[in-house]
Amino acid sequence: MNESAVFWSRILTEVTLSFHIIYATLGVGVPILIMIAHWVGIKNNDEHYILMARRWARGFVITVAVGVVTGTVMGLQLSLLWPNFMQVAGQLIALPLFLETFAFFFEAIFLGIYLYTWDRFENQKKHLLLLIPVAIGASMSAMFITILNAFMNAPQGFDMVDGQLINIQPLVAMFNPAMPTKVAHVLVTAYMTCAFILASIAAYKLMRGSNHIYHKKALYLLMKLGFIFTVATVIIGDFSGKYLAEYQPEKLAAAEWHFETSENAPLVLFGVLDDGEIKYAIEIPYILSVLAHSNPTAEVIGLDQFPVEEHPPYYIHYFFDVMVMIGMFMLFVSAIYLLAIWRKWSFIRSKWFRFIVILGGPLSVIAIETGWWLAEVGRQPWVLRGYMTTAEGATTSNHVELMLILFSILYFILAVGSIVTLHRMFKNNPIVKEIAKRSSKGDV
Amino acid sequence: MSLEILGISVLWIFLFGYVIVASIDFGAGFFNAYSLITGKNHILSKVIKRYLSPVWEITNVFLVFFFVGIVGFFPQTAYYYGTILLVPASVALILLTIRGSYYAFESYSGMRGHKGYALAYGLAGLFIPASLSVVLTISEGGFVMMNEAGPQLDYGALLTSPLAWSIVALSVTAVLYISAIFLTWYAQKAGDQKASDLMRKYALVWGIPLIISAFGVIIELRSTDNWHYEQMIDLSWLFIVSGILFLATYWLLWAKSKYGLAVTLLIFQFATAFFAYGISHYPYLLYPYLTVHDSFTNETMAIVLVVAFIAGLCLLVPSIYLVFKLFIFNKGYISGEDETHV
Fold first, then answer.
1. Which residues in chain B are closer than 8 Å to A145, comparing Cβ atoms?
2. Cβ atoms A217, A49 nearer than 8 A
3. Which of A100, B108, B155, B158 is most exposed by smallest CB count within 10 Å?
4. SS3 of residue B285 by DSSP
5. B-chain residue closest to A166, CA distance
6. Which chain B residues have a beta carbon less than 8 Å from that of A90?
7. What is the ipTM of this complex?
8. In angstroms, rounded to a whole number, what is the distance separating the alpha carbons of residues B320 and B3?
9. What number of other Cβ atoms are within 10 A of residue A40's Cβ?
10. Which segment of the chain is annotated as a signal peptide (chain A) (predicted)?
11. Cβ atoms within 10 Å, residue B197
């Protein structure tokens, strides 16, 4: 074992994944939103929604490009940094990985067609049909890759006898207990995040003084969708908690700083851990028992049931807090917005409220990041829970540090490049200009 | 046919697909940069962009498919090649990433034709096949040492190996040759005679170093008393077929006739050489540590993967056909009549 290679491999994987998931999340969620906007546009015969789909699709190309290339990097890095793990994973769970590439292929093909056939079909509905495989492909590839991750959390579908793997059942491995909640949570939070990111842009335009009906329509549509997806996120998040209590209690216990197994377990919010003492925390009685078992008096397993070397790092508690708080906050903001629209309250047009909506996009991205850190760090020290530690899976090569530096520079360039390109793209072609251009062609 | 032969054949076919589509892509980037420097880009840029734009993402997937497939069918390759290739594969990845993303950045932001950028893009395209072809050299054996920590790559031996450099030369010239012929045909189909003539010239130029470097590789393999060379001799007829196809393609180009046929012959030429090379490599994936047989995955997984593969192809083949119908073989699209980009 090469201690430093293990450490640097973890860092490099973390950097790559943290960068990739921003673009990957956009890649999963945005096609659905484009599809909805395009559909609303056709249904209501409203050119604004069609334009929305078109402009989002244009921006989407840039993010998808970064998503594709960093996804390729991640895919190969799995073998380059974790060769021992991949050797085992190849025997056990190559199927979802393989299916993911097909979903990805499918998406790539139809996205290319969708992008290059605007105005080519007499019937707009035909063009909309092209987007269905894109949206399905994007969600399916997220699903398959999440299945692989779920397997790492809850390995099953094989027997290990004297270090040899026998009785392999690929489908049992795929449909592991972690899979339903993980896949559902990943998909729905991606949709939610994308809705709030695009809502941020609309709110930004409105705050900066544009009073165009296009932005108002966009904001209303996105907040409505965002609300629905956030409700779904909260519900599925609750299921995820119950899954953890049942199958991965050490992760839940570490996230909640629940050190001793007990009944009537309180939920610990915020606070700091100082020498094993929880300070400045808010404790809500019974809620952890409710979260884990839907029963305020139920027993929740604590970290005392696990040997210390198998405890996940306790700092994942902070990730949990951030993720949950942002989720709740966004639920609240979108609910208030919809209520205000219904009751015709005018404060949602105020600067401060629009500013809050603008914050929604970046906050949702932070929630995605912290959520993944919670999930991934929370299964340390295992790479395959119960079977293989992270250290056993890593490469033995001595050059990982250098690669970390190179890839970090690369991601920095990609981040700057994509932001500059997106900014330039929309600055040079504002909505007013595009509408004017299209009406002069007689399309509106 | 046993499952492992089926598995490696499927992967080899996909790798061949990647080699062809990626060559067109990489070569196009280079020719675009070269034409910019020589002031001929007004002739070439349009045709190149028309072809590349809708397909650049698909090209990438071929590669992903290959490396996911090989880990699935032959999990031990992850252990050996994963450990050894950290540096060369990472370099190739970084180049691919820059190239792929910047293609999108430039195309969609409305800032085309930056010279320095186009040059970097073009050169990156040539370094990628060079860095990827290192795998071929390593697989011949002699560059990997086993110690208690695992396999280690001998960089010194690799960088000073004439075989490694002749394989690099072959891969780079092949990229340029394939790309030039394809674009000759594509430009002619688009009705762009000037671009077609220019690409034809490039194709004729690059055919010569291609054939020299092909012989170079054979000579290098032979002089190192290589196990692989012996097996290649047994399949020499396939290499000869490939050579004849090369001459036929070259002659068609020379005679300025039937570019469509030339592209077909070109693909067959590379297919025969590629498969002859692959078959003669049997049974080793990495000489002498890894064979097709001992690295094969368990039978259950193999069967499931084959089923998934067939199901995937049922989706893929019609979709790719659709792309061809809409873009590559669509007269309106390639000649730029309908500008229907998002």
1. none
2. yes
3. B155
4. strand
5. B298
6. 71-72, 74-75, 78, 297
7. 0.84
8. 26
9. 17
10. none
11. 14
Closest Cβ–Cβ partner in B79, B94, B110 for A84 = B79
Residue A257 contacts residue A273 (beta carbons within 8 Å): yes
> What number is the average pLDDT over the span A209-231?
89
Nearest CA in chain A to B148: A1
Confidence at B225, pLDDT banded by 50, 70, 90: low
A397 contacts B319? CB cut-off 8 A? no
Note whether B255 and B204 are within 8 A (CB).
no
Q: How far apart are CA A260 and CA A333, in angstroms?
A: 36
Candidate from B93, B108, B323 with C-beta closest to A73: B93
Residues in B touching A393 (Cβ below 8 Å): none
Residue ranges per structural domain of chain B? 3-341
**pLDDT-based confidence at residue B137 (cuts at 50, 70, 90):** confident
How many other CB atoms are found less than 10 A from the CB of residue B305?
Answer: 25
Residue B152 CB-density burial (10 A; 0-12 exposed, 13-18 middle, 19+ buried)? middle
Which DSSP category does A349 fall into?
Answer: G
Cβ pair A397:B65 closer than 8 A:
no
Mutate to test the interface with B, among A132, A421, A424, A428 (most CBs of B within 10 A): A421
Which of B65, B97, B311 lies nearest to residue A69, judging by beta carbons? B97
Among B98, B109, B305, B326, most A C-beta atoms within 10 A, so best to mutate, is B109
B41/chain A closest Cα distance in angstroms: 23
What pLDDT score does A444 carry? 45
Query: B94 contacts in A (CB within 8 Å)?
Result: 406-407, 410
Query: CA A130 → CA A113, B54, B146, distances in Å?
Result: 7, 14, 51
Domain boundaries, chain A: 1-178+388-444, 192-247+249-378
The pTM of the full predicted model, rounded to 2 decimals, is 0.88
- pLDDT at position B243, please? 92
